Structure formats: C-alpha cells, structure tokens
Amino acid sequence: MKEKGLTLAELLIVLLIIGLGWFTLLPRLDLSVSGSQDNISNINTLLAQAGEKAAATGTFQKIYLIPGLNYVEWKQRRFELPSPLSSGEINGQRATREKFAFVVYPSGHMDELNLFLANGKQLRSIPLLREIMVVDE
Known about the structure:
The protein is α+β, with helices and mostly antiparallel strands and 137 residues long. The protein has a single domain (32-135), classed as minor pseudopilin epsh fold. It has helices at residues 8-29, 31-57; strands spanning 61-65, 71-74, 77-80, 85-90, 93-94, 100-104, 113-117, 122-126, 131-135. Strand 7 (113-117) and strand 8 (122-126) form a beta hairpin. The N and C termini lie far apart (63 Å).
C-alpha cells in the first residue's frame, strides 16, 4: 500500500523555495524606500531643469528651502523632500535664516549642499553633477 503525502525532505525543499521567493520579493515591497527614492529623483529632475534654464538664460537659478517644511521651491513649483527639513548647510556655512536658497550656476554646477532631515537622514549634493543623494550613515 502506497502512502499519500510529502516526506519531510520534500516539505523542507518546498519551504526553502517559498522562503527564497519571499526574500527576493521583500525589498521590492518596502514602500518607504520607494517613496523616498521617488522624492530624490524628483529633486534631481528639478536640479537638471534649473541647470538647463541657467545655461539657456545665463542667469543663476535660486532654489529655496524652509526649515520645518518638506519641500524645495523653484519658480513657484514645489518638490517634496522625503521628510521635513531640520537644517542645512550651503558651501560649508550653516543656513541661519528661516528661508534660505542655494544656487544652480549657468556654468553647469551648483552650491555644495547638506540637508539634515527630521527623520535623521542627510542629503548631500554632488555639485558638479547637479544631483542630491542620501548619505548612508
């Protein structure tokens, strides 16, 4: 008489395959990272547009930040940060005003920028590439 069902070895192999599937899928399901990366991508798009405008017109483009708020502002358009801004540094100097600005230059670069967010993350600029990145701590 033949028994029906799975042996212990077969069951362990099936569980291993299911577990591997979950571990490969899990990073893609983390919505907090995805939203944060989308915000960084949007800000980098803003910086690219500001750079193109600066080069085309030959004028500086100022991008404004306000501590306590979760966006940057350029030409009356707002681009969301991953978290509200706590404080910032421009070219190594702590920004002390309620509203401060950094500059994208016609020559193709921008001010050096460090932003400290309320969620504990830090954003740093790559001035020659006109990009912002999250600093891993």
